[in-house]
Amino acid sequence: MEDLKYVNYQYIDLPRLTTWVLQDIITAYEKRLSSIRITLDLGITKENVYMSGEYVVIRGIEIPINYLKEVITRSDRVYEVTESGKLVEVIIRDKGIYKLKPIGKDVAPTLEINGIHMHRIVGITPWLDSLNKVKRARIRRNSRVLDTCMGLGYTAIHSLLRGASQVITVEIDPNVIEITRHNPWSKYLESNRIDIIYGDITKVINYFGENYFDRIIHDPPRITSRYGELYSLEFYKQLYRVLRPGGILYHYTGEPGIHSGMSIVKGIGDRLRKAGFIVKYYNDVQGYVAFKPRY
């Protein structure tokens, strides 16, 4: 087997704006205010933005107000302010379109890949959705956690905030890892208690010993032929192997196939049981909580 590839994660600290923030800045300018206190990190903190003549000054960078008015016509995007004063969308086009997508004012964004959201956003924010999953996994102080599919890192970060002593999170797509470096809500991945591994979790899991993890969060992409191995009995057996007796696995399923009569969710539960887990489905988090028996 090849050696594990650990990611030296570094957040890129630039001002980031959404349509809502841009509109607030333009409104303040039109009211002839000298400054406005506003978020430049998608709602986490607030800082001052200043008005000077025909310019708006963001962290010392002068930007023509007319340029901001042109940009605001393009909604549904996260922009970062470069040192030259240009606004660049957080998007990657590489064998697909990866986009940091705002879903509301001052809330954590989601990741959109080829038009598909990687979080639940109807009636819930991605941040809260991830927190609820971590709560269902009963992650607590000193837990050793495996997060199988990192994405924007929200479940790994919530695990950390709930006291986990170590979180190992795995991501197979380098474009996803790069997007996190431009997302203020992902910056806590810099913690020395989080280890990011670049690789395929179905291969990476073979490196871990039996009973190594206290908790596992398995939040894979929706089930397709491409990602079928992440829903396979063989992989579930590996999750069972690395989870300690009495440990808990949370497995997100969503609700695929319900309207068409295909019980994909039921099949997932059946395979988890065959792997040895005791399982229960929870509608509020659209996933299974699976226990490894102590005996």
Describe the protein in words:
With 295 residues, the protein is of the alpha+beta class. The chain has two domains: 16-89, no CATH class; 121-291, Vaccinia Virus protein VP39 (Rossmann fold). Helix content is 24%, strand content 27%. The chain contains eight helices and 18 strands. The chain has helices at 19-30, 65-71, 126-136, 154-161, 174-180, 201-204, 233-242, 264-275, and strands at 16-17, 35-38, 47-52, 55-58, 61-64, 79-81, 87-89, 91-93, 97-101, 110-113, 116-117, 144-147, 166-171, 194-198, 213-218, 243-252, 278-282, 287-291. The strands form four sheets. Strands 14-13-12-15-16-18-17 form a seven-stranded mixed β-sheet, with helices on both faces. It has a four-stranded antiparallel β-sheet with strand order 2-3-4-5. Helix 5 (174-180) links the parallel strand 13 and strand 14. Helix 3 (126-136) crosses helix 4. It is elongated and about 70 Å long.
Number of E strands: 18
Question: Main sheet, how many strands, which sense, barrel?
Answer: 7 strands, mixed
| Domain module count | 2
How large is the count of helical segments? Answer: 8
Q: Superfamily at the CATH H level of the largest domain?
A: Vaccinia Virus protein VP39
> What is the class of the largest domain in the CATH system?
Alpha Beta
Average predicted local confidence, pLDDT: 93
Gross morphology? elongated
Which terms would index this structure?
295 residues, alpha+beta, Rossmann fold, 2 domains, 4-stranded antiparallel sheet, 8 helices, 24% helix, elongated
